[in-house]
Each structure stands twice: as structure tokens, then as C-alpha cells.
């Protein structure tokens, strides 16, 4: 049986770990609430812009604007991979990296852009260096940061000859559920909606300019929404993981305490036997 002092030190170590995991769970819960509030605000706005783009596309079927152009099956592709900057969040990063590996197996010549350190590390290790990495975006969630990312992606798509830019990220469902989503980001695929207006429009200055303006706004908001979804998913996954770690620490402390008490009892019993044996030896 282990030394009593070793068991006591182990119990103190696990107690310290339990305090850390409980604190991390509380921090994750606080960040999750903020991210959820922002998601609720961002989703309707992005959906409304998408409906407007759908209306414009239906009323201007001959438009050749690249933001709404039909994607070609062959050509240069880019993939945006959205992960966290840190670990300790269960399978959050693993599921994204696995989906990325599957995507790159189907499209091996794809250029990769990483949002988050964990994705960048995975790509560097298994698939070469990404063409661009954005690290530390999730420390201070701000719309201006997402606009910088969106501007980079728009410039890449419009000027570098990419036929499509896809994105893989975790979509937030609840604190215990995050779904991996893979979808086309550019060119924009307007959603099917029943709210398409049948009225004839007069455009000022012209339809192409309005499509470009709305498309730019949509990508800005969509990147912001994706970052919020990923951030909320990360905090939900971390909160769940830290809750499980705290429970495991509680269980381990109970087990170690039992071993500690048994070791103390065995030591006391041994001492009593030694004293009794010494007393008997003196008396005899």
C-alpha cells in the first residue's frame, strides 16, 4: 500500500485540480451566455440579407456577378477551418480536425485558411502550411475583427481565381451539443425562402452594385455569426468537459480518502501490535 504521506499529497493535488476545473467551468458558462446573446442578434440579420440576395438573384437571372455566380466543380478551392486557440474542451477541436481531414482527402489541392491555433497546428502537422492563419481572434470577440477576416476572404475570392471558398465550423445547438457544419461560403448560395417579393424593383444605382454591397455585408455578418457559433460551441464544450472533470476529481478524492484511512488504520494497527509484542517480551 502506498505511503500515507504520498496519498495525502495526492489528495491535495486532486483538490487543487478540482478548484481549477470548477473555476474554468464558471468562466466558460459566463462566456457562453454572452456568445448566445450575440448569436440571437446576428442570426436574423444574416438571414434577412440572404433573403434579399435571393430576391435579387431571382429577379436578375442573367447577372454574372461573381458573388452570386454558380460554383464550378473543378478549379482552385479554399477552405476556412474554424477551431479554438486552446484545448481542454472535450472533442471540440478533434471533430473539426477530423472533418477537415476528410474534406482534404476529397479535395487534396485545397488551400487552407485557419481561424484558431488548434486548426493551424493540425494543418501544419498533417497537410502543410496554411496560406493564412488568424490566431487570438476569440480572446476579444469584436465585429471589427470578423470584418478583417471577411475582407481578406472577399479579396482572395475576387482577385485570386478561386472557384469556391468553403468553411468548416461547429454550430452551436446547446451547451452539450455542437454540430460540425461544412458549407460553401463563396460564392454566396441564397437560401430558399417563401418571403420573396413579387414586386418589380427599380435599382439605384444598379443591380450589380447593390448585389456587391449586400454580398459584402452578408459575408461580414456571416463570418461574425460563424465566429460566434464557434465561440459558443467552444465554451459549451469546455463547460461540459470541466464539469465532467470536476465530478471525476470528486470521485478520485473519495477513493483516495478511503485508501488514506485504510493506510492510517493499518499503520495504527501495526504500531499497536509492535507495542503489545514489546510489552510481552519485557514481561516474559
Structure overview:
- A five-stranded mixed beta sheet has the order 3-2-1-4-5, sandwiched between helices.
- Helix 3 links the parallel strand 2 and strand 3.
- The chain has helices spanning 4-59, 92-106, 117-126, 143-159, 207-283; strands at residues 76-82, 111-115, 132-134, 162-174, 177-186.
- The chain is elongated, with a radius of gyration of 28 Å.
- The chain folds into two domains: 4-18 and 242-278, Orthogonal Bundle (Helix Hairpins); 23-239, Pyruvate Kinase, Chain: A, domain 1, CATH 3.40.1380.10.
- It has 284 residues and is α/β, with parallel strands linked by helices.
Short précis:
The chain is of the alpha/beta class.
Amino acid at each position: 500500500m502506498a505511503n500515507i504521506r504520498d496519498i495525502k499529497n495526492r489528495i491535495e493535488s486532486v483538490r487543487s485540480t478540482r478548484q481549477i476545473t470548477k473555476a474554468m467551468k464558471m468562466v466558460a458558462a459566463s462566456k457562453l451566455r454572452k456568445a448566445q446573446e450575440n448569436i440571437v442578434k446576428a442570426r436574423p440579420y444574416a438571414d434577412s440579407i440572404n433573403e434579399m440576395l435571393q430576391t435579387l438573384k431571382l429577379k436578375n437571372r442573367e447577372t454574372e456577378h461573381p458573388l452570386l455566380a454558380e460554383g464550378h466543380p473543378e478549379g482552385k478551392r479554399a477552405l476556412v477551418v474554424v477551431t479554438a486557440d486552446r484545448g481542454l474542451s472535450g472533442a471540440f477541436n478533434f471533430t473539426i480536425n477530423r472533418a477537415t481531414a476528410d474534406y482534404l482527402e476529397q479535395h487534396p489541392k485545397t488551400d487552407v485558411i485557419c481561424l484558431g491555433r488548434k486548426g493551424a497546428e493540425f494543418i501544419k502537422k498533417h497537410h502543410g502550411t496554411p496560406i493564412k492563419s488568424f490566431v487570438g481572434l476569440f480572446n476579444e470577440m469584436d465585429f471589427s475583427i470578423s470584418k478583417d477576416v471577411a475582407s481578406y476572404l472577399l479579396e482572395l475570392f475576387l482577385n485570386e481565381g478561386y472557384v469556391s471558398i468553403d468553411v468548416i465550423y461547429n454550430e452551436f445547438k446547446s451547451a452539450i451539443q455542437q454540430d460540425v457544419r461544412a458549407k460553401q461560403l463563396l460564392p454566396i448560395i441564397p437560401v430558399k425562402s417563401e418571403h420573396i417579393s413579387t414586386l418589380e424593383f427599380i435599382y439605384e444605382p444598379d443591380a450589380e452594385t447593390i448585389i456587391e454591397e449586400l454580398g459584402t455585408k452578408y459575408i461580414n455578418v456571416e463570418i461574425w455569426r460563424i465566429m460566434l457559433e464557434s465561440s459558443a460551441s467552444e465554451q459549451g464544450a469546455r463547460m461540459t468537459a470541466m464539469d465532467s472533470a470536476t465530478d471525476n476529481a470528486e470521485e478520485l478524492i473519495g477513493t483516495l480518502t478511503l485508501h488514506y484511512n485504510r493506510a492510517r488504520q493499518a499503520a495504527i494497527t501495526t504500531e499497536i501490535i509492535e507495542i503489545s509484542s514489546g510489552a510481552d517480551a519485557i514481561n516474559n
